[in-house]
Amino acid sequence: MLQPSEYSYGKSNSPIPTPNSQPNPVKTVSAPVEQATIGRSLVIKGEISGAEALYVDGRIEGKISLPNNRVTIGRNGIVQANIVAAEVVVMGKVNGNIECSDRIDIRSEGSVTGDVSTIRISVEDGAILKGGVEVRSGGQKQQNQATQAKPSATEPPKAMAATASA
Predict the structure, then answer these.
(1) Which of 49, 88, 152, 161 has the fewest beta carbons closer than 10 A?
(2) Residue 27 falls within a domain, yes or no?
(3) Domain containing 126: what range?
(4) Cβ neighbours, 10 Å, residue 132
(5) Kind of pairing, strands 35-38 and 116-118?
(6) Would you say residue 11 lies in a domain?
(7) Would 20 be classed as within a structural domain?
(8) pTM of the predicted model, to two decimals?
(9) pLDDT tens for residues 75-101?
(10) Cα torsion 80, 72, 90, 41: sign
C-alpha cells in the first residue's frame, strides 16, 4: 500500500486542481415519492386499489380504495366514485362518498358532493361541500370495528329490546 510520502515527491498533499474541478455539493438522497398519476385525457371506469399514492387529473367512475395512502384530485380531475383512503386532497370535482382514516382537505377550487367521514377536515374558502360530514375521534374507528366484529351474545339486539319493553 502506498503511503502519502511515497507518492507526494516533495509536493504538498493537496490534490492537483484541474480546470474543470469544482467542489461537489453534498446531495441528500431521500426516498422517491411513489405516486401513480392519471393524466388529464384518461378515463377509467371500474375499481382502483393499490399501495401507493394516487394523483387524478383525469376522470374516474367506480371506486377508489387506497386505505393507507393519499388520493389527490387535481384541478382537472372529475371523480364519480366512492373513495377510501388515509388522506384525500380535493382540488377538482368529486361526486361520491369519502372515507378517510386521517384527513380530508377540500381546496378553494374543489367540490365534493357526498358524505364525508374523517378524523380531520379542512375546507378552504370558496370550496363546495354538499352532503353529510362525520368527524370522529382517532380511537372511535377502532371501537366501532371491535363492536361490529363481536356483538355480545348476552345482550339482546337494541331493536328487540325496545319492542320487548314497550
Answers:
(1) 152
(2) no
(3) 33-139
(4) 10
(5) unpaired
(6) no
(7) no
(8) 0.66
(9) 999 999 999 999 999 999 999 999 999
(10) negative
